Amino acid sequence: MQKKSSEKGTEEAPIQKIPAANEGAVNFLSHIGANEIKPCLFEESLVAISESGQTIGNFSISVKMACYSPDEWEEEDCYLVHATSKVTIDGVPCTTTITGYITKRLETVEQHTKESVRFREHPVETRTHVMKRQDQLFVRKAIVERDEEIHVDTFSYKCSQLQGLISESANLLVLRVMAWRQVVPENAIFLSFDTEQHICTSTYNSLGFQKQQVGKEEVDVFVIERTVHSEDDIPLNWQFYLLPDGHLSRRVQVGSPATMVILQVPVLFEIDKPDPRPVFGKIPLDWEEDVELYSMFLDRKEELQASHATYVRRHPELTALLADFLQLLLLRKPDDVVTFAAEFFAPFSAQNPPCRSFQSSDKPSPFRSHV
């Protein structure tokens, strides 16, 4: 239900039929991760140029991490987007500021917009506040003349109906993501606010890559066209020229006498990518033909032989033990040498209780299998 109020009071307005974003738009927003947004957190500034080429103002954008707290108890990490446009057209100063809090899911939880036109004797401001509370999105638009509200419109929408909504502040962040990807979702229909703050559809289209002269440098830019399709007014159209890291190099609003451009190429951000793991091909090795390896083999062989001989000299009982085993082995000549050796050396094990070496043949041996 939409409610509309003015200086005459509050009255019920007819139920507004809210359009819906399509699946492509919703999927696009849901697959934007924090790792893609992280390199998009920076400040930038442009200047406003008139049709005659004169500088008539400036335009700045800032996106950074912030903590949003709708009350004193809950806090949520989000993105704070702040944009300011100040231009003077035909001697009339015009200022627009946008401040928005965007969640990591790119949902707008709060946005404040102020548009002011400073006539000499008749300054006019349009103030719009968007705020999410629980499952409702509340919108308040007020027209102010000389610090007095002369007209107020209020709206409320169910958040369940606003999947795929991109507000003006969220748009500045989404454009940077598209620039990093250098891809615009095809046939995606998003939701947006029109000039009267009614919900309408919006689309993005890729105009491809172009060359742009910035100072003495020529840079490649990715051009994105955004259109807001109002049901009650003509469509609004912008063209954004973006550098590979999301910096805005040029912004054109169709019908506006001011064009925003950069004066010099900024230092572009780059994402460090890990070097690929080296792949070493398998090389056949004949160590006997390799002089160095063969020499190492001989040195190691002599070292082991000397170590073994030293050990045998220090333990004469080893020679006596082996001599006894070989003598008994040759006398008995068993078919199963391994089992005979196990039975012979079993009494020397620290894990078995002491017993006579060769017990009666009637007693089963644990080393022999019985079927």
Automatic annotation (TrEMBL):
It comes from Phrynosoma platyrhinos (Desert horned lizard). The keyword Nucleus applies. Plays a role in primary ciliogenesis by modulating actin polymerization. Keywords: Cell membrane, Cilium biogenesis/degradation, Cytoplasm, Cytoskeleton, Membrane, Nucleus. InterPro entries: CATIP_N. Belongs to the CATIP family. The keyword Flavoprotein does not apply. It comes from the Eukaryota. It is found in: Cell membrane; Cytoplasm, Cytoskeleton; Nucleus. This is Ciliogenesis-associated TTC17-interacting protein. Signal peptide: none annotated. Residues 25-257 form the Ciliogenesis-associated TTC17-interacting protein N-terminal domain. Pfam families: CATIP_N.
